Amino acid sequence: MIRGDQIYVRTITATAIPSGVGTAKRNWQYHSRSDAHSKAACWGIVFDLLTSCPLLREHVEAGKVGFGINHEMRDFRMNRKKDLDLVICSLNGEIEDEAESFTDLVARYSIALDPSDIEALALLPSLKRGSVGSVLIALEAKACMTAHIKACPRLYDELSSSFQTILGDTKNAVAAAFVTINAASEFVSPVLNKDTKKNAALKISEHQQPKAAKRVLEKIKELPRRSGEDGIGFDALGALFVDCRNDGTDVKIVDALPDGTAVDTILTYQAMINRIASMYSSRFRAV
Fold first, then answer.
1. For residues 225 and 239, what is the distance between their CA atoms, to the nearest angstrom?
2. Which of 75, 119, 190, 271 is deepest in the core (most CB within 10 A)?
3. How many C-beta atoms surround the C-beta of residue 221 within 10 A?
4. Mind listing the pLDDT tens digit for each residue in 173-231?
5. Cβ proximity of 151 and 144 under 8 Å
6. Could you tell me the residue ranges of all domains in the chain?
């Protein structure tokens, strides 16, 4: 059962990122200068991979694999480096008993779990943080929440740099990216609302929807994808439409835009999880 996408939007809804000074600080569900959304997305993805991939669970239980956070990967050919949000990896040495676990991240990242999520998590083997040996899965999570058209080139460049660096470092690693696309017609931007003085009027950005969200999706679809270890591109790529006004109201998954546009079947969250799990099972039986 896939749970990570719902955990992700539930976590963003409850997130409170402070901005401003003194008693006039505001709390934001999303802030472009925070990586809270990336952490929540990656946590949900790993949770779903642990429940979906028997081989990964087997390797975790045997102590053969662990995870790393903000792990630096370096493209050997281009001497380009990049910190990846989260990696699943073979371990360089034994894991210490007091090492941080995947479950420990729930409190550290304020992951919003419901009772059924907690029960499912308790049934999983303990994935531990350790010294990274070989990277097996490299995850990158991005979000385009406002100024969609302006953000497209940078989003594309950052994601292109990610898979190039991952594969330049470790060719057989599963390179995966997940992109959140805001389908809301309005957004309260922390950048445009720096003035947190008492009674300061909020500046609300208006989005031309569905045009803005569709443009981002089309740009993501231009990213190279590979079907085997000899290709160049992402092994798995996922996108998710959400409705996020960033005003404290619930963040919700949007299955389709008002004109009926939905994320392509091959790029859905479910398809991304299935693809990563399948590739792990075929590439890393000998871990």
1. 14
2. 190
3. 14
4. 999 999 999 999 999 999 888 766 666 788 999 999 999 999 999 999 999 999 888 89
5. yes
6. 4-283
